[in-house]
């Protein structure tokens, strides 16, 4: 890696190999329209707190339109920065998984490619996400009604020289990220085992339509017959999101690997909230709203231990069951025997929805009580491990945020 010249900071324009600015670009201006499938378009509305949100609002363009729209692809380690609007200044560090999906950069988004021979893109991302980085970005704000930052001002934003600061905290941040990744791999391994185990011991019987072929005392039923209730979450406005009183769990907290995404937690102001909207540790929720290609519709989440009282948004349902345990239902909801029919039952064009009446009709095979009790005992230790690893990830995330702000505030 080349050394930055010996000064305390360097302009972003001197370390960026390119900055894609799609301000004002729409398919119509390029002679086309949005489509129902193809390349997803990431916009400012999809980035919050370093993560991706509102997947159900993502729109698509055809491959032909993508070639006109994107002269250069979004690459791993690029930094996405929202450029305009009430949430301008939000950042996202492009992952390998994201880059492989060939997103197009939509309106009010800068895509910044960093020269890795000069500086680590992660360092730049961490700085821009920190309180000091946000302060320096906002100091270059323009506009009265539509506030934001123009490209010529973005190029002048000063990035600290990492060679002139104490590197110990940065190493600690990197260590936390490695530990977080390791815990996620452990959870992946456990979940894959549990899903496979559920299919072998229970799930495969959902494909048997003749009751006589089921094991003795097992029954073919529906979620409604088993008294499973789906309770909608709370509607909210942008004003509600300005406070810090509660966490609000939403569709942005669902990950493709079936894990909970802590970095997409929204916060709510102190307001009167009905008790039915609150969730606590090990409550079960299911996603009722998604975008194309319906990757998250019907996905479940078990609520981890969180540092604030938490509610669920209106794109989720809280699952309430007196007969079947949350662990059992969670594995059932992860199974393809449940998810595949739900994908087809969901309806909508840009945003797809599944409603309680459709969920209630889902068929489920229920073993006899003794079998369920034995199965519960066998899987319980694995869920306890997942809870432990998630708790560690939560603490890692909180420590990481504290260290980042401390790191850059002491430059």
Characterise the protein shown here.
The strands form 8 sheets. This protein has a 4-stranded antiparallel sheet. The chain has a 4-stranded antiparallel sheet with strand order 13-21-17-19. The protein is globular, with a radius of gyration of 23 Å. The longest helix has 41 residues, at 369-409. It is an alpha+beta fold and 411 residues long. The protein has 11 helices and 23 strands. The chain has 2 domains: 9-163, DNA methylase specificity domains (Adenine-n6-DNA-methyltransferase TaqI, Chain A, domain 2, Alpha-Beta Complex); 179-396, Alpha-Beta Complex (Adenine-n6-DNA-methyltransferase TaqI, Chain A, domain 2), CATH 3.90.220.20. It has helices spanning 12-15, 63-69, 96-100, 121-129, 131-138, 151-154, 168-201, 326-334, 336-345, 356-360, 369-409, and strands at 9-11, 16-21, 39-42, 47-48, 51-52, 59-61, 79-82, 91-93, 104-105, 109-114, 158-160, 219-222, 228-232, 246-249, 266-268, 278-279, 284-287, 289-291, 300-302, 310-312, 316-321, 351-353, 363-366. Helix content is 33%, strand content 20%.
């Amino acid at each position: 890696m080349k050394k930055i010249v010996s000064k305390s900071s360097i302009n972003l324009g001197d370390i960026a190999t390119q900055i894609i600015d799609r301000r004002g670009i729409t398919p119509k201006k390029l002679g086309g329209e949005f489509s129902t499938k193809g390349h997803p378009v990431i916009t400012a509305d999809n980035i919050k707190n370093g993560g991706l949100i509102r997947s159900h609002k993502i729109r698509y363009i055809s491959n032909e339109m993508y070639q006109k729209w994107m002269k250069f692809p979004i690459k791993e380690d690029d930094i996405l920065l929202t450029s305009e609007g009430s949430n301008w200044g939000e950042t996202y560090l492009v992952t390998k998984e994201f880059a492989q999906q060939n997103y197009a950069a939509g309106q009010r988004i800068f895509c910044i490619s960093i020269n890795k021979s000069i500086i680590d893109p992660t360092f730049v991302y961490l700085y821009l996400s920190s309180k000091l980085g946000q302060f320096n970005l906002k100091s270059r704000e323009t506009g009265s009604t539509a506030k934001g930052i123009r490209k010529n001002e973005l190029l002048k934003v000063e990035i600290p020289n990492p060679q002139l600061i104490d590197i110990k905290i940065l190493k600690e941040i990197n260590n936390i990220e490695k530990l977080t990744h390791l815990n996620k791999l452990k959870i992946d391994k456990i979940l894959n085992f549990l899903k496979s185990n559920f299919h072998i011991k229970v799930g495969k019987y959902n494909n048997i339509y003749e009751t006589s072929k089921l094991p003795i005392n097992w029954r073919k039923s529906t979620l409604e017959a088993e008294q499973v209730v789906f309770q909608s979450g709370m509607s909210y406005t942008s004003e509600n999101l300005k406070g810090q009183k509660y966490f609000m769990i939403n569709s942005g907290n669902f990950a493709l690997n079936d894990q909970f995404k802590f970095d997409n937690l929204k916060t709510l102001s102190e307001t009167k909230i009905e008790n039915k909207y609150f969730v606590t540790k090990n409550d079960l929720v299911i996603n009722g709203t998604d975008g194309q290609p319906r990757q998250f519709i019907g996905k479940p989440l078990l609520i981890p231990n969180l540092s604030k009282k938490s509610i669920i948004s209106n794109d989720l349902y809280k699952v309430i069951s007196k007969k079947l345990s949350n662990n059992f239902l969670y594995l059932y909801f992860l199974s393809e025997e449940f998810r595949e029919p739900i994908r087809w039952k969901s309806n909508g064009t840009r945003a797809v929805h599944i409603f309680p009446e459709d969920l209630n009709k889902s068929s489920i095979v229920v073993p006899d009580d003794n079998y369920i009790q034995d199965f519960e005992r066998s899987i319980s230790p694995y869920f306890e491990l997942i809870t432990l690893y998630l708790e560690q990830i939560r603490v890692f995330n909180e420590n990481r945020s504290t260290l980042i702000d401390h790191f850059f505030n002491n430059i």
